[in-house]
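Let us work through a complete example step by step.
Step 1: write down the sequence.
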Amino acid sequence: MSQKIINFENFIINIIEDNLDFFSIYDELVDDNSVFIYDRHIILEAFKNLKMFSLFKKEGIITEQKNIYSSGTKNMIPCFVILDDNDDIVMIWIHSRLQGNGIGTFLVGNIKPKKIMNPLSEAMEFWKKLGFKNLIDKNYLTK
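Step 2: predict the structure and record it as tokens.
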């Protein structure tokens, strides 16, 4: 596991509402060769419906941290979480270069979802670590 490089006190979870931020995240998703690029219709709808969130550096914070921000921005970490109307997680993604730094745990811990929709099989250990165990219909996890 990599050394933790992110001080979460300097960041806030916020809606991705700016087109440049959206395309910056999408470019990072493609760069990361993520399987989620095949779900771009879900990602675009979430963005249009203000259901897509990321971690943004708080205003006035100056950091020397390198290689943590999305290309094209100097204030957003390349990650996102998509929520449904019940604030349950539909999709969560963290760029592979930043995985293992607590970003997913921070996002989930602050959002406090009751369900995780369609969890990826390779992420099951992560979800179990966070207390999501009850697989129902192979479509979602609950606490």
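Step 3: interpret the result. The helical segments are 19-31, 40-48, 103-111, 124-129.
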